[in-house]
Specification:
By secondary structure, the protein is of the alpha/beta class. The protein has 13 helices and 12 strands. It has 3 domains: 8-142, Rossmann fold, CATH 3.40.50; 183-306, no CATH class; 308-459, Histidine kinase-like ATPase, C-terminal domain (Heat Shock Protein 90, 2-Layer Sandwich), CATH 3.30.565.10. It has helices spanning 16-26, 30-44, 63-75, 95-105, 122-129, 144-248, 255-267, 269-301, 314-324, 326-329, 349-365, 398-401, 421-431; strands spanning 8-12, 56-60, 82-86, 110-115, 135-139, 310-312, 333-338, 345-347, 372-381, 384-391, 435-441, 445-453. The structure holds adenosine-5'-triphosphate (ATP) and magnesium ion (MG).
Length: 459
């Protein structure tokens, strides 16, 4: 930034004597000055007189020649600060045309038009050149001091403009760097935030599941053991009843017999004997289902072995997850399963369950008013297993498809979607060194495909 001041001046004039005059004014003999200065400082001590710096004057005798000098100077990165241009040059370009051409090459060049008279009104000239802010007019005959001062002032102006533009460029560069740094920071924060939400979501689900499983397990335990006992007690009662019934047939006719028969009819004893075992069996089924739900909850959140890599059965995970989200699916879609035999895979089972849950719930939410179908298939492919969740819902438009894995991208109404399901799923699959991809057609449906390595480490 600290370049020496630019004192280079271009003079374009077809009269040779003018060049001599300018040379005398702008480049006075330095030696004589130096000798005088030396004497002065010898007599009066150090001089404090500010010295005007010398100029470097280059001569051209026509517009075209001037342009050639300027072009070369620009190419050598030694620009002129200003040019004095004669207005009237009968051969070749006149002053106005020359200035136009000079500014095409060096728009920052300060220009002084020298003239005794002009072929244009000044307003027209300024209008034509768009040069109100970089053009001065010097009328001949001129005073030396006028030329000197113009040269000094305009050279300084050129320097200041250069400094300002360097400063601006530097500032722009700083702003650009800072913006980039901020963008990186924002992206990192978004990622961190979504990871935080993921771990919180997992942790709270896990805790909830653990709590529910624990609370339900005890009562379920005694209800199911009581039901078994009740079943065997009722068997015994039934034997007793049969014995009574048998004895009854041997009673002599009379009042007791009539009373027994009336009571039996009133209590519908035959129906009770049939129905009680059915009730007990149904209750056993019901409690069996509760036991399964508790098991699914545990399996889903893997509360016992949370966050550890283990070999697990993916299909079992899918089934547990389907049971968990059954109420979400019930009125929206039928689930069709195409399972192929799968080996256990090395995974964070509860996290894979999360992925399945997100895909299945998204599929259900993509259904319109008509009931749809969600097809879950899987299979083995070399060292990997694959899983597909396909729906015949609304589909995803091509312009949206690139965004669906972005954190917080959602097309669902406020309160319904947080836009995290797929970005979390993406993170989980990447953690498993797997891949998740999507193909979709608007109005037809969407298929998500997940590919996962069977083992995380080489065998
Ligand atoms: N099966 C699908 N069919 C159609 N669009 C889908 C499907 N799955 C995802 N999308 C689109 O991708 C967007 C992002 O899905 P994502 O699961 O990440 O968030 P969400 O479902 O909107 O909210 P969240 O899952 O956090 O409750 C959805 O809003 C939806 O527009
Ligand atoms: Mg979702």
């Amino acid at each position: 930034m600290n370049q020496p001041p630019n004192r280079r001046i271009l003079l374009i004039d077809d009269t040779p004597s003018i060049h001599e005059d300018f040379r005398k004014i702008l480049m006075p003999q330095e030696q004589s000055n130096q000798a005088l200065d030396d004497m002065e400082s010898a007599l009066f001590g150090e001089t404090s007189k500010p010295q005007a710096q010398a100029f470097e004057l280059h001569s051209a005798y026509g517009g075209e020649e001037g342009l050639a000098l300027l072009t070369t100077a620009m190419a050598q990165e030694r620009p002129y600060a200003l040019a004095f241009v004669d207005m009237r040059m009968p051969q070749g370009w006149d002053g106005a045309k020359t200035i136009e051409e000079l500014w095409k090459v060096a728009p920052g060049l300060q220009v002084v038009v020298c003239t005794a008279y002009s072929d244009y009104p000044w307003e027209t000239l300024l209008e034509r050149l768009h040069g109100h802010d970089r053009l001065l007019i010097l009328k001949k005959p001129f005073d030396n001091i006028e030329v000197q001062q113009m040269a000094n002032t305009l050279a300084n102006k050129w320097d200041m403009a250069r400094r300002a533009s360097l400063q601006t460029a530097h500032l722009e560069q700083l702003v650009e760097q800072r913006t980039q740094a901020l963008q990186v920071e924002i992206a990192e924060r978004k990622l961190l935030e979504s990871q935080l939400v993921q771990s919180e979501k997992l942790a709270s689900l896990g805790q909830l599941a653990a709590g529910v499983a624990h609370e339900i397990n005890n009562p379920v335990g005694f209800i199911s053991s009581n039901l078994s006992t009740l079943d065997s007690y009722f068997n015994q009662l039934q034997q007793m009843l049969d014995a009574y019934q048998h004895a009854e047939s041997h009673l002599p006719p009379g009042e007791p017999l009539e009373q027994l028969r009336a009571l039996r009819t009133k209590l519908e004893l035959d129906f009770l004997k049939e129905d009680v075992p059915i009730l007990i069996r149904e209750s056993k089924d019901g409690i069996g289902r509760v036991v399964q739900i508790v098991k699914d909850l545990k399996n889903f959140s893997r509360v016992d072995t949370d966050q550890t890599w283990q070999f697990a059965n993916l299909q079992q995970g899918i089934d547990s997850t389907l049971n968990i989200v059954a109420s979400e699916l019930k009125y929206k879609a039928d689930v069709v399963k195409h399972y192929a035999p799968l080996p256990d895979i090395e995974c964070l089972a509860s996290q894979l369950n999360q992925v399945v849950m997100n895909l299945v719930v998204n599929a259900a939410q993509a259904m319109g008013p008509e009931r749809g179908t969600i097809t879950i298939s899987n299979g083995v492919e070399g060292e990997n297993i694959w899983l597909e969740v396909a729906d015949n819902g609304c589909g995803i438009p091509p312009e949206t498809v690139q965004k669906i894995f972005d954190p917080f991208f959602t097309t669902k109404p406020v309160g319904e979607g947080t836009g995290l399901g797929l970005s979390l799923s993406y993170g989980i699959i990447k953690k498993h060194r797997g891949n998740i991809s999507v193909s979709s057609e608007v109005g037809k449906g969407t298929t998500f495909r997940v590919v996962l390595p069977i083992r995380q480490t080489a065998a």
